[in-house]
Amino acid sequence: MKFKIKWASKILLALILIFSFVVCKDMLTSQIDRSNPLLELTQTLETANFVFYYSPGDFVYAERSEAFHDWAVALLGITCPKKVE
Fold first, then answer.
1. How many other C-beta atoms lie within 10 A of the C-beta of residue 73?
2. Number of helices and strands (H, E) in the chain?
3. Tens of pLDDT along 33-82?
């Protein structure tokens, strides 16, 4: 009985992998519409430690990022040689 269960589980695993490949293969090869202006990172926000690039209509938590940066640098006792982009 153990042999049948091991054999059945291997077949089930193979079927799941094949099904996943068939379903996902179109997602891997689909093209992104690059003409969409919302995909362009035309906005820039520069703070003391970061340079953010984003699309019109998006928002950036610059204050939160700066606070996290200050906390992490103090906790780790390091300095950053340049801004994070």
1. 13
2. 2, 2
3. 667 666 788 899 999 999 999 988 888 999 999 999 999 999 999 998 99
> Amino acid letter at 26?
D
Phi, psi (deg, nearest 5) at residue 51 = -125, 115
Q: Distance between CA 60 and CA 53 in Å, rounded?
A: 9
Direct distance between the N- and C-terminal alpha carbons of the chain, in angstroms, rounded to an integer: 59
The residue that leads in pLDDT, 24 or 85, is 85
Give which of 17, 69, 42, 5 is closest to 78, Cα–Cα: 69
Other beta carbons within 10 angstroms of residue 62's beta carbon come to 15
Rounded mean pLDDT of 1-29?
A: 70
Q: Which two tokens stand for residue 38?
A: 């919302």
Domain ranges of the chain: 1-30, 37-76
